[in-house]
């Protein structure tokens, strides 16, 4: 229990639940089962998007292609089911395979050419989106497998069925990083590249695996989202960039480099979904949501910086070690 | 480091970077020839005019991006600052009915301040520019929409209309091209004839070395942020000068062209290297390609794919060129190359 309370996301979750209870009394709309279901539905999607980014952040890289891959997977699943009349299982399997392949392509280009993930995924992400728009002529598929609709829209009171895959993914990713050898090597590479190299862990392999996993997770997210939208549109993922970074950063990823708090991601997704909902219920302009996300990233990162010592250079922090050393000389 | 000043060895010319200017001229020539033969009206003055209009804005965006990329940082918030500046311009010209001579400096000041704030946050928190500018992108873009409430501003300023839609010398040339070239010249003077520019290049090539050699790194970084914001503001004004009916949604699609112009133009992503002529030519190539694809009747929904592919190919070719240059110069150390080396040498 003490370990649970000392995690970075525990105060965040407590504050959100508290604020939720208060809001439940203040505004009638907030506490209804349907509203909580909406929050949980959004949170499930956010969590999955965040996990797709988190696995790449864990190796101190990043992917701007999460949305692009999701768009491509969405229209693949929709197209195979609607236009090619494949079975749901075949369409979903093909979509997930494609997501994995897209991630693999990203990883291989990054490693093969020794480039930064940023610029490669900016380019490939745009290309993936471009392909999705091109082959559909920007027209969404509207015949959606009933199974996916009941997954996306189904609920028991406030419990959205989408939480099931989201929780499963969170546990799977968390367990993978904790117990699987490949997960540990990903964290080792992210935490200290030189040390990982000296202990014989391949950085190239870690980066390729991380991007492939990210592609697969983006694909799964896309499949989850099809039911929510009731439409397979190539526009899926076009506005996921900021949320994909906001969720893992607020959840505490990469602040210490080489850490992948899957549970933190899930909690951050809950918080962001709740804020999103509150701003809408309170009739604040929806643009405020976007602003709030940006400010929350700062709040999370800065509070994280105050709360803990930084161990070394990581993606988020500009070479603090080097800075300190120079100042001392 | 000088424009097109590298070694003109065999294939180097087509591979961007130091010799990017010459390769890009070749590439533009090829594109223009191909589209002139394949479609009708590519070389019409109307089409050339609109290419110039768009390329001028994209070139300035490329320079805005390059300002920070040169200093080994990046500016994901070009579009966010663009949204703020566009809204500010619309508000000043339409709601306040301020004269143009007052509105333009105020908008530029707004852009500089918005960028300086990001720089200040980066320096005080020690966060990477990626996280800072990403967060500010959503703050600025969301904030601009929130404050204006998505309102449309119909700009009627005569001078601005002439700038965006008038003609210069020939009916095929938009006055905005002159603005872009002027910005380019100022940037060239900055990087190759001023100490501030050299300091920016030094900070980008090796921040630690720059610090220990007595460069006031925080001030140089702040200057880079401020100039990037200024160029974003200029791009916003240029954009408004031909769109005229503007809103806070402007800038949402600026990130990609800004990186394409900078990277294709030969600005090293690791910092410390710039080619101003390359940026101008890269923007011209990019918008020629976009326009040409429309001329040969490629449907609009296929337009996004080439954007991604152009960036991907540019990055890959640039990396290939660097690799070859590195292997060729491994034995005898070459002074000009040495600045760009340390960053690359770290990776195993």
Keywords:
A: 329 residues; mainly alpha; 73% helix; globular; B: ABC transporter involved in vitamin B12 uptake, BtuC; two-stranded antiparallel ribbon; 15 helices
Write a short abstract of this structure.
Chain A is mainly alpha-helical and 329 residues long. Chain A has helices spanning 2-6, 10-26, 33-57, 66-82, 88-113, 117-136, 146-153, 163-179, 181-191, 193-198, 203-229, 241-250, 262-281, 287-307, 320-328; strands at residues 155-156, 159-160.
Would you give an account of this structure?
- The complex is a heterodimer of chains A (about 325) and B (about 350).
- With about 325 residues, chain A is mainly alpha-helical.
- Chain A has a single domain, classed as ABC transporter involved in vitamin B12 uptake, BtuC, CATH 1.10.3470.
- In chain A, about 75% of the residues lie in helices and about 0% in strands.
- Chain A is built from 15 helices and 2 strands.
- Chain A has helices at about 1-5, 10-25, 35-55, 65-80, 90-115, 115-135, 145-155, 165-180, 180-190, 195-200, 205-230, 240-250, 260-280, 285-305, 320-329; strands at about 155, 160.
- A two-stranded antiparallel ribbon of chain A has the order 1-2.
- In chain A, strand 1 (about 155) and strand 2 form a beta hairpin.
- The longest helix of chain A is centred in the middle third of the chain and has 27 residues, at about 205-230.
- The radius of gyration of chain A is 20 Å and the shape is globular.
- With about 350 residues, chain B is mainly α.
- Chain B has one domain (about 10-345): ABC transporter involved in vitamin B12 uptake, BtuC (Orthogonal Bundle).
- Helices cover about 70% and strands about 0% of the residues of chain B.
- Chain B has 15 helices and 2 strands.
- Chain B has helices at about 20-40, 45-70, 80-95, 100-125, 130-150, 160-165, 175-195, 195-205, 205-210, 215-245, 255-265, 275-295, 305-330, 335-340, 340-345; strands spanning about 155, 245.
- Chain B has a two-stranded antiparallel ribbon with strand order 1-2.
- The longest helix of chain B is centred in the middle third of the chain and has 27 residues, at about 215-245.
- Chain B is globular and about 55 Å long.
- Mean pLDDT of chain B is about 85; it is low at about 1-20 and about 335-348.
- The chains are: A mainly alpha (about 325), B mainly alpha (about 350).
- At the A-B interface, helix 6, helix 12, helix 14 and helix 15 of A face helix 4, helix 5, helix 9, helix 11 and helix 13 of B.
